[in-house]
Request: fold
Amino acid sequence: MGRSPFEQLAASARADQPAPLDVRGGVLAALARRRAAPRDRTLALCAVASLAAAAAVTLAVLPELSALQDPLAGLFSALDGVPR
Reply:
């Protein structure tokens, strides 16, 4: 049974031993010539705004944290017989 042209091409590609090529020098030189992009402050402003919103929500919810820690405290406080 004969091999297909694709299988022959794949076999010859596996057998090929290309010469090593060092491209580090050219890449480092190109990176050294490249100027840094100007900073875009949009992402920083969005991060600061989301941090402020998270802090405001945290401060608003903090008093309700005690109800989350013991959800039945309100129910049983009426049954303990201690007037308030």
Q: What stands out?
A: The chain has a mean pLDDT of 85. The longest helix spans residues 42-61.
